[in-house]
Amino acid sequence: MIPRRFFSLLATLALIGLPLLASGHGYRLGDIRIVHPWAMPTARGVAGDASGVGYLILKNNGRKSDRLLSASTEIAEKVELRAHSGTGDTPPTRPVESIEIPAGGEVRLEPGGPYLLLLNLKQPLEEGQHFAVALRLERAGKITVDMWVQKNAKNSIY
Ligand SMILES: [Cu+2]
Fold it and tell me: What is the per-residue pLDDT across 34-85, written as a single tens digit (0 to 9) for each?
């Protein structure tokens, strides 16, 4: 017989464990690891056709570089890959054809860096929600990841 205390310990671990999992979910696709896809909540009162921004880290354990070619989600009309062009305090961003993931390295889509621009959202993004995003990589192929809506995951997980 398993003592009752064992089960309450499991319950406690589950309570502690869930937030950790939620803040650090990840995926593996060939040589690529995709770490914690997340999106900023849209501002309150913003109409459903607003834009959103999505972030994630792509790590490449392989010997060849790969490239993120596209992303798509049912909740946005279109997803653009965006990167900063030029230098300075607030360099402008522009759409790019792809985002390179160097061999043995990583690219961080995060505030201040490259990002996914979710155009014409069908619904506002509210903290606590999550939604599916399909990613296409040149070498590794396709994967669908779960993107979490959070205020600022950058400070808590990276
Ligand atoms: Cu996560």
Answer: 999 999 999 866 665 689 999 999 999 999 999 999 999 999 999 999 998 7
Is-contact 66 101, C-beta < 8 A?
A: yes
Ligand 1 centroid–CA 36 distance in Å is 4
Among 3.30.1660.10, 3.40.50.970, 2.60.40.1890, 3.30.200.20, name the CATH number for the domain at 26-157.
2.60.40.1890
How many A from CA of 20 to the centre of ligand 1?
8
Q: What angle do CA 138, 141, 143 make, to 5 degrees?
A: 130
- Distance between Cα 144 and ligand 1 center (Å): 14
Other beta carbons within 10 angstroms of residue 140's beta carbon come to 21
The residue written with tokens 């062009």 in the block is 85
- Residue 2 CA to ligand 1 center (angstroms) comes to 33
Q: Is beta strand 141-149 parallel, antiparallel or unpaired with respect to 32-39?
A: parallel
Q: What pTM did the predictor assign?
A: 0.80
Distance 4 CA to ligand 1 centre (A): 32
Distance (Å, rounded) from C-alpha 75 to C-alpha 39?
Answer: 12
